[in-house]
Amino acid sequence: MTTMPSLFISHGGPNIVTSDSEARHFLETLSEYMPRPKAIVLVSAHFETDGVVVVTDPAPEMIYDFRGFAPELYKIVYPAPGEPALAARVVSLLEKAGLSPCTIGKRGYDHGAWTPMMLAFPDAGIPIVQVSIDPNRDAAWHYRLGQALAPLREEGVLLVGSGHITHNLRAFFPVMREGRTPDPELVHKVDAFTTWFADEIAAGDTQALLDWKNRAPFTAENHPTDEHLMPIFFALGAAGKEIHGERIHSSKEYGFFAYDSYLFH
């Protein structure tokens, strides 16, 4: 069976599924980067728990975890099934790694899950098992999550971390909703931050990446809170000891809100 890659996706807001944006058009081509997965294990920045939790739900419903968007976005249904047997395998691997997972029997798809997946795999025919992040744990802990689940790549399972390479909503919403001009200094800081990540991933420098809080430029301006960056470390851990990472998409909204996505193989 072909070994699947792992992915980090900047998932955007729920309106990405209706917007005419570079990020949307990229996600619509995502399936071209790999064979069709047998199943998907997805870590979303919007699924936050204490420790790691695995969803065993065989038929996840929808979570509309956003406010102030167009009414039609609250009517979208992405009916991809869950897969309890795969969820049990995920739990077993996490237990083996000493990560003490818990399970939840009922949880729907948040927009970090359904927006990119419905664009990438619109037929909704691939089972998805959701795994949480812990916003109180660091990059190294989320890297261990990816390491623990890396064997699934040999079984035809695609491992996806869905977050955002930058996520300063305090700067984003005034620009989006009030039409303000982006701060040129913030544009510079976003460029410096995303370039640092691209360079370190291209160099395969795992230690630098895990120490991003100390080594990357302008961390607070790009991530006032850390949760939307943690899925990249899950994807990084799933890539194996010698990472081969490739930035497969880079675009910005309003000149500063970055949508970088990475393929690890």
TrEMBL record:
**Keyword entries, A-Z:** Dioxygenase, Metal-binding, Oxidoreductase, Zinc
> What family classification does the UniProt entry report for this protein?
Belongs to the DODA-type extradiol aromatic ring-opening dioxygenase family.
Is Zinc among this UniProt entry's keywords? Answer: yes
> What are the required cofactors?
Zn(2+)
Q: Which CDD domains match?
A: 45_DOPA_Dioxygenase
Q: Does the keyword Zinc apply?
A: yes
Full protein name = Aromatic ring-opening dioxygenase, catalytic subunit, LigB family
InterPro entries reported in the protein's UniProt record: Extradiol_dOase_DODA, Xdiol_dOase_suB
Q: Which GO terms describe its molecular function?
A: ferrous iron binding; oxidoreductase activity, acting on single donors with incorporation of molecular oxygen, incorporation of two atoms of oxygen; zinc ion binding
- The segment(s) forming the Extradiol ring-cleavage dioxygenase class III enzyme subunit B domain are 25-249
**Pfam families referenced in this protein's UniProt entry, alphabetically:** LigB
Report the Gene3D superfamilies cross-referenced here. LigB-like (3.40.830.10)
Top-level taxonomy? Bacteria, Pseudomonadati, Pseudomonadota, Alphaproteobacteria, Hyphomicrobiales
